[in-house]
Amino acid sequence: MKKLFLYIAFLALGNTNVFAQHIPSGKKAKREEKNKRINAIIKQEEEGVLKYKTHFIAGFNLTNDGYGGFLEYAKAQSVKKALLFQLDISERKNSKEQKMQNLAYPSSPVIYGKINFFYPVKLGVQEQILLGNKGNKNGVAVSCNFGGGFSLGLLRPYLVEAIKDDGTTEFVGYDAPDNSAFLDLNRIVGGPSFGDGWKNLKLIPGIYLKSAIRFDYGKYNEMVNGLEIGLTGEFYSKKIPQMIVINQKQLFVGAYIALFFGRRK
To answer: CA 146, 151, 157 angle in degrees (round to 5)?
Structure first.
């Protein structure tokens, strides 16, 4: 009886080994593939390799004549190349602008001679080329970007609060019938609020080009944090009236610096 029991146990153990050797190859292959993928990610993280399919970032920039913000969606073409789709909204100011305050009236400061606020809205595509990858996961990746697209110049009339003949005040713009009130310092008491002038918005189409050097110092490869330094050129179908008694421009060339943050996948 004891020998019979040992014989049965031996057969059961043998069948177990045979069963273990015949685990469906599909599950085993998937498990091995998953382990390889995890090991590759760990290696890339250690080496600082930025390998991704997409990224989405937001940022803000300071230019030589204004400021703005932007959104960017990127689609990788290879480890070293990507297409960047960008939406940029900014405000350009003129170097002649100076704020003045009428101390006799508790109102907003006024910029004498300003005709319009100027808001370029740019939509375009850039090619990004990786120049130097991260030395490690906490290093800095360096890339260059170049491209361009369409620019739409939004002109919002600059309105000043001026005293009328009856002693009350009203907001007038440079294109108003009574332009003398717009330019008379003895009648101007204040400038516009943020809500003034939007109903008379004018649109001027144009194109733009942009090139930049980007430094990505995100602590981990899935994070995007960095600094960008670049040049832009915008050309519009008409001259942009910003200030009186100056030469109005169609072409705007400038430099900028930007900070950005986001994630990559």
So the answer is: 145
User: Residue 75 and residue 72: Cα distance in Å, rounded?
Assistant: 10
Contact (Cβ atoms closer than 8 angstroms) between residue 69 and residue 58: yes
pLDDT at 178: 59
The pTM assigned to this predicted structure is 0.77
Distance, in Å, from the CA atom of 195 to the CA atom of 257, rounded to the nearest integer, reads 29
**Domain match, 33 and 135 both:** no
* Parent domain of 85: 51-264
pLDDT of residue 41: 52
Phi, psi of 16 (to 5 degrees): -65, -45
Residues 2 and 119 in one domain: no
The number of folded domains in the chain is 2
| CATH number of the domain bearing residue 188 | 2.40.160.20
Q: What is the rounded CA–CA span in Å between residue 30 and residue 41? A: 17
